[in-house]
Design a protein that fits this description.
Blueprint (H helix, E strand, L loop, with lengths): L9 H9 L26 H14 L2 E12 L2 E12 L3 E7 L6 E7 L3 E6 L4 E6 L15 H8 L10 E7 L4 E9 L5 E9 L4 E8 L5 E12 L16 E10 L4 E12 L17 E4 L6 E4 L6
Parallel strand pairs: 6-14
Antiparallel strand pairs: 1-2, 1-13, 2-3, 3-4, 4-5, 5-6, 7-8, 8-9, 9-10, 10-11, 11-12, 12-13, 14-15
Length: 303
């Protein structure tokens, strides 16, 4: 029996509902004349660390509506999604087909296990987050946890070694903080890029052993979180601004996500039951990431 697709088979369903096309475009940066470049702001290593940690520590949960575009190999699709995330490791996302608003997937993860409900296929998938990647099926490598890591940043601890450098290209000037991993040999653990025109974080890179680039997340379109009526921040005790455009690249997993945030509420009270995804009755249970695929009809909501 052929191994079933994991939860991102939903992308195929989204493509059927909303149309799909090959993604052959190549993003090209254009050089900006020197006289038109914004003035670069100065900051110290300590100031950048404080700015990053202040944002990371102040975002504890989020409730958002996003347009989700997924690229894996030559497959491309777009879907409207409702995304919830809460520290330390809870995430849930419900995707709907464009125009008709029909749910095409519902998925959740607690940091160890992910669950996905595919209504149109009547399948309920259960698997481990820390699964070995599938070289032949890149869409199977996408995990809800990758969204959580991009949205709820980990703080940089005082005991971690952090280096500061400048980086310039044809259009912009950056500060880059490099966090090192110790152990038998020192390696790069994380890089945080700040645009010197406004000192906003615009890129987070995470590395694995031997310098492998696991995740490359880019942020843009930082907008203030302001209640237009009251003229105050909309996030209680949270940051004053949040990026509305995110691109998540997972080069070793061979996929990319583009998120456009249309609505977001930070630090709202999200009860634990909102992250619970039970298996519907009479659905087909598919256990993944095991030595042998197991399929059986559901007898209860807890397979």
């Amino acid at each position: 029996m052929k191994r079933p697709n994991l939860w991102m088979a939903v992308v195929t369903l989204a493509a059927i509902s909303g149309g799909c096309a090959a993604n052959n475009g190549v993003s090209r940066r254009q050089s900006v004349p020197k006289q038109e470049r914004p003035v670069a702001k100065d900051a110290t290593r300590e100031e950048l660390l404080e700015k990053y940690n202040a944002f990371a520590s102040s975002v504890k949960s989020l409730n958002s509506t996003v347009a989700l575009k997924t690229t894996a190999g030559s497959k491309y699709s777009e879907v409207k999604a409702f995304l919830l995330a809460s520290r330390p490791a809870n995430v849930r996302m419900v995707g709907q087909a464009p125009v008709i608003g029909k749910t095409i997937f519902d998925m959740a993860s607690n940091g160890k296990e992910f669950r996905v409900w595919l209504p149109t296929k009547n399948k309920f998938l259960v698997g481990e987050v820390a699964a070995e990647r599938n070289r032949d099926k890149p869409l199977e490598n996408l995990r809800p946890q990758h969204l959580l890591d991009a949205l709820l940043w980990p703080e940089i601890r005082k005991e971690e070694t952090v280096l500061l450098e400048e980086f310039n290209d044809e259009s912009s000037r950056y500060y880059v903080l490099t966090v090192l991993r110790g152990g038998y040999s020192t390696e790069i653990f994380r890089k945080i890029w700040f645009d010197r025109s406004d000192l906003n974080a615009v890129r987070l890179q995470s590395y694995g052993p031997k310098g492998a680039l696991l995740s490359d997340v880019r942020f843009s379109d930082w907008q203030p979180l302001v209640d237009q009526t009251a003229g105050t921040t909309t996030s209680a005790g949270g940051p004053q601004a949040f990026p509305r455009a995110l691109r998540i690249d997972r080069p070793h997993d061979d996929y990319r996500l583009d998120l456009q945030v249309s609505k977001i509420d930070l630090n709202v009270n999200l009860s634990a039951d909102r992250f619970q995804l039970a298996q519907p009755e009479n659905s087909e249970l598919v256990r993944v990431n095991t030595t042998a695929d197991a399929k059986q009809p559901a007898r209860d909501s807890h397979p």
